[in-house]
Amino acid sequence: MPSNIFYISPEKKCQEKIEKGLLKAEQYALSLLKGTAKWGRIPLISDAMYLASRFGLALTRSRINQNLLPIPPLRIYVKNAEYVLNYVPWVTGK
What we know:
By secondary structure, the protein is mainly alpha-helical.
């Protein structure tokens, strides 16, 4: 548990932080509208996350993951009767 869990900062300091944050948010929103906004990036981590997300999208687009990890049909038991849901689009490929 953090040591500052019961710490309550003075109202004036909180108000200053809020105003400063709102000013930064407004400046960022205006730069978004102008098309000049830049998001901070960490060279290796940002590139790795970009590549991982692109790989994930390509993987789901190719359906390789759906063929390698098929989800079995859904079986529902109701009062000694078994119902099987056979049509699962990601398993059948339809």
